[in-house]
């Protein structure tokens, strides 16, 4: 089981997703929780590393479990997801090649989609926070 913390940041009714260097798929911004770290601590660290910004107004959205995309079959993903605002303009740093904001349909139309991200997209759409 891979345990991660993820950011559900919505702008103009679209959800931010990041694409790591050398990969084709866009994932939730965030990453693995280090030993001894809480999901919230991991979220703050990962967003600073990936997008070069801090977070404000952080609230837990929920826990999402799915198959971990790009890992061995039957590898589970346990993702603690948080809603939050950014403290500045994001920019791709380090291991992140790019980031984009998607509607549900735009993300679903990609050649490769991460099941965990798709779960969050659908949940946010049912809450009326992102466009289909």
From TrEMBL:
It comes from the Bacteria. Its cofactor is Mg(2+). One of its GO terms (molecular function) is hydrolase activity. Transmembrane segments: none annotated. The keyword Metal-binding does not apply. Keywords: Hydrolase. Coiled coil: none annotated. SUPFAM superfamilies: Nudix. InterPro entries: NUDIX_hydrolase-like_dom_sf, NUDIX_hydrolase_CS, NUDIX_hydrolase_dom. Pfam families: NUDIX. Residues 1-126 form the Nudix hydrolase domain. The keyword Acyltransferase does not apply. This is DNA mismatch repair protein MutT.
């Amino acid at each position: 089981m891979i345990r991660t913390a993820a950011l559900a940041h919505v702008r103009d009714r679209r959800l931010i997703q990041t694409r790591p260097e050398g990969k084709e798929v866009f994932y939730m911004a965030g990453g693995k929780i280090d030993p001894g770290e809480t999901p919230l601590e991991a979220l703050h660290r990962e967003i600073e590393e990936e997008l070069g910004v801090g977070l404000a107004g952080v609230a837990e959205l929920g826990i999402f479990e799915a198959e971990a995309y790009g890992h061995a079959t039957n590898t589970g993903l346990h993702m603690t997801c948080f809603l939050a605002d950014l403290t500045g303009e994001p920019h791709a740093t380090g291991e992140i090649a790019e980031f984009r904001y998607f509607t549900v349909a735009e993300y679903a139309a990609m050649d490769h989609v991460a099941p965990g991200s798709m779960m969050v997209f659908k949940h946010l759409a049912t809450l009326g926070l992102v466009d289909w």
